[in-house]
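Reopening closed ticket. The problem is back. First fold of the pair:
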Amino acid sequence: MRLALRLVLIASLFVAVLLLLLRNQIQDKWDQYGVASYIQHKVKTTFKDGTLDYLPPLPGITGDKVIVMAKLEKDDTSWVTEELSDWQAALYTVNPSPNSRPKLSTPVNKGREAMAYLTYIIDNYASLPSILTFLHSHRSGFFNAWHTDTPLHSNVDALHTLKLDVVKENGYVNLRCNHNPGCLEAHTHNAHVTPAVYEELFRGTSTELNSTGEGQKAPERVGAACCAQFAVSREQVLKRPLEDYVKFRDWILETEESDAKSGRVMEFLWHVIFGRDAV
C-alpha cells in the first residue's frame, strides 16, 4: 500500500513539473484554438438545440457577394449552398479525377487555396460581385477548423456575422481576429516570405520595388493572422490590374517551391496584395 501511494505521489509530481515546464506552450495552443470559448459555447448549444443567440437570420435571397473556395474532390461542401444560400458560390475542385466533370476546377493542384482564389479573380475580373469571401472547404470542427475565429470554429457562423459594410469600408478583412499565430513579433520574422521571395513575387507588378529607395523595398518582416480566410471588396480587388493577379498565379505555377510552401507564401501575403502594410 505504501509503495503504491509513493508511486502515485512520484507520478503526480512528475506530471506537475511537466505541466509547469510546458506551461507557455500549452497556453499558446489554448489561445490559438480558442479552447475556453469553444467549451463554453459547445456546452451552451448542447442544451439549446444547437442554436446560437448571436446569429442573425438569413436574408433569404442570393446577394451581390460570392464565396470562393478550393476543395478536394472528396470534400463535402454541400453546406455552402444549403446553409449560406444568400451567397453565390464558386467552388473549385483542385484534384478532379479523369472521369469527373466539376463545374469549376483549377489549372493545376498547386499553391493550396491560392490557386483557386487567383483563378476566380482572373476569370471574373470584369464582372466581380461587391464582396468576395475566400474560405476553406471545412464547415467547422475543433481540429480541422480551429483557425476559424468563431466560438465553435464554424465558417457558417463566420459569414452569418460578417459585417459587409466593414468589408466595403476597409477593402480587406481577415476573418481571423486572433493574432496567434501569424502576427506575434516572433512570427513576423517570416521564414516563408523572405525579402528575396517577396521581390520575386512582386517584381513586375503594380507594387513598385526598388532597392535604391525609390519605391517600396522588400520588407524584412511580414506578419498576418493565419490562415488564408478573408473578405475583400470589389473596389479593393480592382485597385490592382488584372496582370498582377496573372503574375501571382504564374509565380505559383512556375516556382520550384512545393504545393505547401508556395501556398504558405501566399497565405502571408494576401493582406499586402490587398493594400495592407507587411506588418
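Second fold of the pair, where the issue appears:
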Amino acid sequence: MIKVSWEHYLIFPLSYALLPIQYNHPDDTLTQLKVRTFPEIDARTETADELGLTQSQRTHRSTIQGISVASYNLGCFLGACTCIKVGDMLGRRKTIFMGSAIMVVGAALQCSAYSLSHLIIGRIITGIGNGFNTSTVPTWQSECSKSHRRGQLVMVEGALITGGVCFSYWLDFGFSFLDPNSIAWRFPIGFQIFFALVILSFVHELPESPRWLVLKGKEDEALNVLGALSDLPSDDPYIWGEFQAIKDTVIENQKAGGLKDLFTMGPDRHLHRTCLAYVNQMFQQISGINLITYYAATIYQNQIGLDPLTSRILAAANGTEYFLASWIAVFTIEKSGRRRLMLLGAAGMSFSMAMLAIMSYLGGKGPGVVAALFLFIFNTFFAVGWLVVMITPISFASIQYKTYVIFAVIKLTLISSNAALFPAVWFFYPETAYRSLEEMDSIFRKCNSIFTIVKIAKDEPQRYGENGELLIRYEETEEHRQRQVSRASNPAIEKVGENRVEDADEPRV
C-alpha cells in the first residue's frame, strides 16, 4: 500500500508556494534595477525630467513598462488555457513537472537577457510554466484533501504564496545595493530556478490524484491512494464510499461534450459554475491588489513622497505584513466559512482604497503617513492577483491619485448597494465548508435557478462532520441509487478506463 504521511499534505501547498519568487519579481523595486539595462522601461519621474520627456513620451515609457510586466501574466494565461487540454492527458504530477521545467527555461532566458524583447520572451515562457502549475496544484490538492481540511490547506497555499512575495521583496531589496551591477536584478530572477528544481526533484514522490486515476481507469491505485491519504485500508467502508462517489462523478462527467460543455446549462449546470468562477476571479483581480504588490515602492516614493531607500524598506515590510496577515484565514476559514471572509475582505479593501485616494489627493506628510498605513491595511484583506498589472503604470503616469479612485469606486460599487461583489457573494455563492467535491456536484445538480444555490447548499445535509467523520454513507443516498440505475440501463458509459474495479454497494473483502 502507498504510505502518505503528514509531510505529503504540506508538500502540496509548498510545491505551489515555491513559485511566487518569480511572481513578485515584476514589482517596481526590481524594475528600477533593470532600467540601466533596459532604459526603454525607465518611467521614473526624475529620469523623465532629466531627459526633458514630453507627457506623451512619459506615457509611452509607462506603457512599455506595463507591457513588460504584463507579459508574464500573458504567459500564465496561455499556460493555464493549455492546461485545460493537457492536464487530464498527463495527470497532475507530470503537468507540474512540465510546468516547472518550462519555468527553468524561462528564468534562464530572463536572467541572461540584454535586450527587452529577450526579457519579454523569457517572461512569457516562465509565465506559461507557472500557468501549468498554478492551475494544477490547487486542483490536485483539493482532489487529495479531506472536506474538513480542504479550505485550510488551500489557505496555507495562499499564506505560503505571500511568503514567497515577502521573500522576493527582501531579496530584491538586498541585491538593490549591488546596483549598477546587473547582478542586482539577474540573481533574484535566476534564483527562482532553485525552487523549480526542488519541485522537479520531489513532485513524483507525491501521490497522484485519485480522481485522475479513476478517470484513467486505474481504480485499484485510486483506492490505495484514498486509503493512504486517510490512513485506512482500501477496503474500509469510509474509503469505499468515497471511491464510489468519485467514480460516479467521473462517469457522469464522461457524458460531457468537452470544453464546449462549460457553456451549457444541463443537469450539471456547467455554465452556472463557470460564471461563478469567472466573476469571482474577475473581481478578485480588479480589486487593486497588484497596485500594491507590484508597485509598492513607486507608491511610497512617487505618490507619498518618501525617499527611495525608505520606500524599498516599507515595500518589503508591506510584503512581510502581507505574509503574516495571510495566516489569519488559515485558522478561521473552516469555522467562519468562505462567504463571510469574502464579504469582509470586499468591505475592507474598498475602505482602504477610498482612504488611499483621499490621502493621495490631499498630499503632504500627514496624509502620506496615513496612506502608507492603509497600504498595510489593504494587504490584510487580500491575496495576490494579476489582472490590473497592465493598467497600473500607465495610470500613474496619466492620472496619478485617480488610480486609487478607480479601484475604490470598483470596490465601493461592489459592496455598497446595487452592483456586484458583495451582493453577488451574498446571493449567488454557496458555502463550501466541510463539503467534498462530490457533494458540491450534487448540490449544483439539485439547483434549478441561480437564485436557489445558496439555500440548497445551506439546507443540504452534510456527508462529513467537522472532523471528517462520516455522517451519511454515499451508497445509501438516492443520488447513488439513481446513478446505478442509469448505468445499468447504459453499460457503455461505465467503463472509464482499464483496470476497473467491479461495482458493489459494500466494500470488497
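Update: turned out to be a display glitch only; the data is intact. The chain is about 70% helix and 0% strand. The mean pLDDT is 75. Please close again.
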